[in-house]
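[job 4471] stage=fold_predict status=RUNNING
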Amino acid sequence: MAGAGVLAVGLVLADTAPDPDEVTPGLLGFVVTFALALALLVLIRSFIKHLRRAQNAEQRLADEQLLAERAASGGRPAGGPVKAGSGDVIRVPDAADAPVADPPVADAPVADPPVADAPVADVPASTKERREEA
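[job 4471] inference complete, writing structure tokens
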């Protein structure tokens, strides 16, 4: 008999459907939607922060491996051109590397020889990068 009562209530509720133009989610629906949107923004921001940290850690590891390989090979690059700002030491040819030529004329000005093995200055880290490293 209990099943018949539930069926009767279900039929009564099915016959009295609300008008779709009058039904709104109300304040509770707004609050729940707003909370979900806020949680999504917090999660996206956290995800981006963790991705940046992982990329920085990966880059640091690659740099350390490269330095270890260079130290093992006597400090010479494995090949390819040296990029400025990469922390590499660029060798500038000096007078000992120049081919032998006629001695300079006494009246001609003599230029200073270039500095050999001058390190390339690194670009200072931005304030944001320093805060992320700390």
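[job 4471] summary: The radius of gyration is 36 Å.
[job 4471] exit 0
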